[in-house]
Amino acid sequence: MTDTAQSQQAQRGKQEEAHLILPAAEVDAGTLRFATADDTERALCIGAFNVAVPEDLDVRAGLDFCRTFYKPGTGDPADRHRGHREHGHPASKLGYEDRPDQVEQLQLESFLWQEYLPDEVTAVLRRMRQLTLDVLYGVFDAAWVPEADRDLITGGAPQDTGLCYTTVNHYRAGLSDRAGIVEHSDSGFITTICTDQPGYEILHEGHWLPVRERPGHFTVNLGDAFRVLTRKLPRPVTAVYHRVPELRPDAGVPDRSSFTVYMGPRYDMPLYQYDTEGRLREYQSFRDFSVEKAGKLGYDFHSRV
Ligand SMILES: O=C(O)CCC(=O)C(=O)O
Ligand SMILES: [Fe+2]
């Protein structure tokens, strides 16, 4: 083998091994804690980290629902486990979407969970919503976002009057020649993700790296609303660019599942930004921002919003 071929092979070997280990945190009596100040710094800089699943939260009902929501309904209107492809979800501005990538998604606002989802799934999501709120406020602390501004910026996240929704993801490994989920940043402040298998990747310092799963932990993403808000502050937050590459069918392995709780501004609200003097300014309507972003990424924006 030539020197060049050898070094190329070594390089490939290195790339195959390369993965990213995210900083880890936990929520202790409502307060977000990283092990070290350096972990806090890295979390804001990467725009992603792990947070421990609380002891009183059993995520299985959520993952089970990822494996049934898309199946044809049984005809029993009381069965909320299946039939969501055809359902229509008339009260939701989001709902079911058959996307051009492998993933098919059900997105429902938090005030509709009780109506449309099985009770045990709603219970998991509500617990995850509380955790996500605690984590969000912990990141506001870390990024020096003044407490007095947080209700305005979020539209009242603690009272659940901002925009909070779940996304339930089924990755159809049987569909070939498409990404699992195309590369994107999330639009809001924060997304907490629960997955059943690896596949999540982050664009880190110019390279796509698979993220090492940390057992017993969720992954948290920070999104565009946070990036815009803090861009001119001393501790700017990154909106993490992430994706799931094409998944291949594997005998005996179920399709990949994930579900998330997202928090962001309502579409009738502005995005805010601190100027260099630390004054809070309206930046752009969140709806306009979202429509522009969808256009750039080449997908349709929710037709009902
Ligand atoms: O399934 C995952 O790991 C990521 C899902 C995701 O990026 C999303 O729902 O926005
Ligand atoms: Fe995402």
Automatic annotation (TrEMBL):
The keyword Transcription regulation is annotated on this UniProt entry: no
Q: In which pathway does it act?
A: Antibiotic biosynthesis
Coiled-coil portions: none
Stored InterPro entries = IPNS-like_FE2OG_OXY, IPNS-like_sf, Iron_ascorbate_oxido_reductase, Oxoglu/Fe-dep_dioxygenase_dom
Q: Where is this region: Disordered?
A: 74-98
What PROSITE patterns would the database entry show? Answer: FE2OG_OXY (PS51471)
Database matches in Gene3D superfamilies: B-lactam Antibiotic, Isopenicillin N Synthase, Chain
Domain Fe2OG dioxygenase residues, every copy: 162-265
Q: Which UniProt keywords apply?
A: Antibiotic biosynthesis, Iron, Metal-binding, Oxidoreductase
Keyword Iron (UniProt): yes
Which family, according to UniProt? Belongs to the iron/ascorbate-dependent oxidoreductase family.
Q: What is this protein's record name?
A: Fe2OG dioxygenase domain-containing protein
The organism named in the record is Streptomyces mordarskii
